[in-house]
Design goal:
By secondary structure, this protein is of the alpha+beta class. The protein contains eight helices and 19 strands. The chain is elongated.
Length: about 350
């Protein structure tokens, strides 16, 4: 990942009066796996289709490996696409599906055969070469779709929510398999998803999109631990958040008065500013006398959710406060709905944002 491979500059796209992409820019390094994450209508699939050449930008440019492809038709961009529904041909075998792009490129059968075999081996589907794709499971069809995209040796691979039709357990397995496969091939890939956990698992970096713009572009750990805005905080992971007013500020730290008590956080806001303080659920412990450097509050449990390896406590917060989740490795005895609990969390892990 040492040089820029994909460069989107000033991309804008409108459908009628609706602006879907708004002066968006994105740079992706060679060999990097970047996810476009966001809710329906944020522009992520439109951006993917513009890169693929299935839609034309109204303004801006797209370059791959230093070559401007903005005006090229889709079939001349050498960009592989894996669609949400896989778009496999039901009347063809697995091998014939994988080789379809090679035939479209005019590759001779003698040259195509070893490339198809190589692609089948890459996705561990060699023994299925002569089977009809209709006889395959969803996960197997997904592998065939990836192999078909890779066999033409694209300069860039685009994946449009390729796991959405799979059940949860298979989806999680395929996420890890795909990440390993693309590492092995060394290809640059753009992955569209609305699933935050999926994006965190597969990505080198994640672009969180909002109303046709990129709200934040960062590696998964930075995105989760240091979201740039309330929008990113809310979209990526859960949190306990409280509104309040800054009562003191200095030396890179603010003191915020909330309706549950006083909270300190790293930040720079003027006294009197309306802010929102937040902390990730796993950073909170139920401790009455915590060590120094921690905020302490008290709240009441409204609901308990057992999630197998962890337990979530949903807190009964004052009216107007809609985020109150604590996550524990195990539930302490005697804690349940209605229980009063002491909350402690590191000042260093506390985030502060301007109120919406």
């Amino acid at each position: 990942m040492n040089d820029q491979h994909l460069a989107v500059r000033g991309a804008s796209k409108r459908f009628g009066t609706a602006s879907v992409l708004d002066d968006l820019s994105l740079a992706v390094a060679r060999g990097e796996f970047v996810s476009l994450l966001g809710p329906s209508g944020c522009g992520k699939t439109t951006l993917l289709r513009c890169i693929a050449g299935l839609l034309r930008l109204d303004a801006g440019s797209i370059a791959v490996a230093g070559r401007d492809i903005s005006a090229l038709p889709a079939h001349r961009r050498n960009v592989g696409v894996v669609f949400q529904n896989y778009a496999l041909f039901p009347h063809l075998t697995v091998a014939q599906n994988i080789g379809f792009g090679l035939r479209a490129q005019g590759v001779r059968a003698a040259e195509a055969a070893p490339r198809i075999a190589e692609a089948l081996a890459l996705v561990r589907m060699a023994e299925f070469a002569d089977r009809p794709v209709t006889a395959l499971s969803g996960g197997q069809q997904q592998r065939v779709a990836v192999a078909r995209a890779l066999v033409v040796r694209p300069t860039l691979l685009l994946l449009d929510e390729p796991f959405s039709a799979l059940d949860r357990k298979l989806r999680e397995t395929m996420q890890v398999e795909l990440k390993h496969l693309l590492r092995e091939v060394g290809i640059t890939a753009i992955f569209v998803t609305h699933d935050q956990e999926e994006a965190l698992v597969v990505s080198d970096r994640i672009a969180v999109m909002n109303a046709g713009r990129i709200e934040q572009l960062a590696d998964p750990a930075t995105l989760y631990q240091r979201p740039a805005s309330l929008y990113v905080l809310d979209f990526v992971g859960q949190s306990m958040r409280l509104g309040g007013t800054v009562s003191a500020a200095g030396l890179g730290e603010v003191t915020v008065e909330t309706r549950l008590g006083t909270v300190r956080a790293p930040g720079a806001f003027a006294p009197g500013s309306r802010v929102v303080v937040a902390v990730r659920p796993e950073a909170v412990t139920l401790t009455e006398t915590p060590p120094g450097g921690r905020n302490t509050l008290a709240a009441r449990v409204s609901e308990v959710s057992f999630l197998g390896s962890r337990t979530q406590l949903h807190l009964d917060l004052p009216a107007g406060e809609d985020r109150g989740v604590v996550e524990l490795p195990r539930l302490p005895p005697g804690i349940g709905p209605g229980s009063a609990v002491p909350l402690a969390f590191p000042i260093a892990d506390t985030m502060v944002f301007p109120a919406a």
